[in-house]
Amino acid sequence: MPRAPLRLLVGVSLATSATLACAGEVDRPALLIESAHVMTMTSEGDLADTDVLLRDGHIVAIGRDLDPATHGVSRVERIDARGHVVLPGFVDTHSHLWTTTMRGRFGGTDGTRFFPVSTALGAVMTAGDIGIAMRLGALELIDGGITTTADFFDNVLTPAHAEAGLTALDASGIRGRLHYGGRDRSTRYPIDLDHLGRLAEARAPGSRVGLGLAWRLPRDRDDPANWAVRQREYDAARRLGLPVQVHVSGEPGPMFDALIERDYLAPGVEVVHATDATPRQLAALDAAGASLSLTPISEHRVGYGLTRLAAFSGVDRQGLGIDGNALAGSADMFATMRLAALTWTGDAREETAVQPRRLLELATVGGARALRMEDAIGSLAPGLRADVQLVRLDALHLAGHAGEDPASLLVWSARPSDVATVIVDGIVRKRDGVLVDVDLPALVREANASAAAIRSRAQAPD
Ligand SMILES: [Zn+2]
């Protein structure tokens, strides 16, 4: 299987960060993570008792007993990482963060199915509700060690809703993309391409949060007018140089074939929920340089089928995703890896069918490759962006580990609560198990109030 080439990248210009960072960020002290077990997810492999030096949003150096002064660093904050595993932040290749305040609403009965319930609730969300749901969702991702998300925002009722979502992602501190979609899943309300274009133009190159297109194929594919709408959207995204995400759930066979026949597969196009894709379809995707996003928990939950990772092993660019914290239940990349591993071994009837490190690759460098961001994130090497998580190993459910390769421990035993520290773009967003500068009780109150208001609005007669 053509494994993702794990390149050691040293060519990223450090000057870029200085020009991009705002004045406040330039003033931050450098960070020295000391004496950790470092999983680089590069050809360098794991490095024991190793330091990682971060400055101005980049990884400056990785090595033993680093002396910041030799790297021109005078002001440094030291983070004692003894007993911790340091690894790249996880990459969530697909989410719907606007649904976060629908948690607990999908009950497995006809009246509580995900699609009708989320559509009804989504239709009455204000821009304020969107901002709350997306900020809550993004902070939960960070809390669980996820530093990048590609968010599929397919409920853009007005330009103000899109702006609220973008503002929420910016404010949360997460890296990622807002994939701008339509009002619903039909072609009745085409995506506001003018607004998307203006937002994309207003973003500085290299912004922590960028834009993309949340694209769908028409449900009624016999009507050429539907195709004309979708073609305009696709062409606009390509013209703007924006990545495109597209669902092939629902009728996966014909939808995937339509992508192939109409020549939509290309670098920068990510195909989501391809649980039943055939070898022929996957070969076409791979040959075109397109990517796969696999979201095992949600795909199992809504009945898209089993996410059999072995079936996708010929695809170069593939990563894992959460697909909405409410549908997945929570933003838990450890549980996502675990379910994918369980499905793989159970399907193969063979305990050794999958290696834990392969799951960790998919959750880090694999996801970065799926988003075509591997030159910036997904692994730890000098020159890459400083997106790093520290996992502490002293919880009850991690005790009894003799200190060998931690890959198996992370995949089979770890939880988001074990993520002690999360750094995105060189800024500490979670420290000693607590999100930084987040009033959690207020956030929870706000989220619950918004969820209740959405619910009562959805129940009120027109
Ligand atoms: Zn999705």
From TrEMBL:
Domain of life per record: Bacteria
An example molecular function term from Gene Ontology annotations: hydrolase activity, acting on carbon-nitrogen (but not peptide) bonds
Residues in the signal sequence: 1-23
Domain Amidohydrolase-related: 85-427
Pfam family, one: Amidohydro_1
Key words of the record: Hydrolase, Signal
Alphabetical list of InterPro entries matching this protein: Amidohydro-rel, Metal-dep_hydrolase_composite, Metal_Hydrolase, MTA/SAH_deaminase
PANTHER family: AMIDOHYDROLASE-RELATED DOMAIN-CONTAINING PROTEIN, AMINOHYDROLASE SSNA-RELATED
UniProt record similarity statement: Belongs to the metallo-dependent hydrolases superfamily. ATZ/TRZ family.
Official protein name in the record: Hydrolase
Protein species of origin: Luteimonas terrae
